[in-house]
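Hello Y.,

Per our agreement to keep a running log of every chain we model this quarter, I'm adding this entry. I've kept the format consistent with earlier entries: sequence first, then predicted structure.
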Amino acid sequence: MSFIISLYVQEGIVMASDSRLTLTHTEQRGNQQVQISVPQSDANYKTFLAPGNIGISTYGAADIQGVPISGYIDSFITEKFSGPAVDVNAVPKLLIDYFRSLPLVPDTGFHVAGYSKKNGKLIPHLWRLILINGTWTEINKPGDQGAAWEGENDVMTRLIQPVSLMGPDGSATPLPPSVINWQFFTLQDAIDFAIYAVKTTRDTMRFQTRLKTVGGPIDVLVIKPDRAFWVQRKELHAEDNVLSF
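Predicted structure for the entry above:
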């Protein structure tokens, strides 16, 4: 699993994701089946920048028959974006068709974001895709501001949903909700919230008795009407400490 988040504000779109690749398998121990989950890598890419300032984030199953899905996404971008410019609204179907043509369709989802031109204006788009169902839906509406997150979403959902305090007699006293005013977010606010959401999910899961499926560095991509750029992205590097014998 993973955690990805996309925010859309008037100034642009922000996409962020964690970097953990977790291997999960089931072992038979006597009469019980035990699920074993092992963090394999904290250097996995889950957010990608395609030509035309189009962002793609992935969550869910992170491999296809033992091969990391990031390699397939790189291949998809190379193959489908090598010719004429691709409109962001065409990418959801291209992604669905590409991955559903493989021998094994992974239980994976995507966010796709970018801008398209209509009547001389650049219009923001954010799409949610689910491979298993072969479906895609647009999340945002022109002029709206908001956020959408996928994957291990329970931590953030609990933080923003109404909650109650349970009394000794079992009665529940609702706590006053604190609303997040998405409509007032600037682009910097969106960047800050994206990092906060991934970091909070990652750090909360660290202390919980559960599979540690979110972790590693946080990649953050910003897409504006005229350009796209990385606010932060992990880089390839040599190991800091080299042992000598």
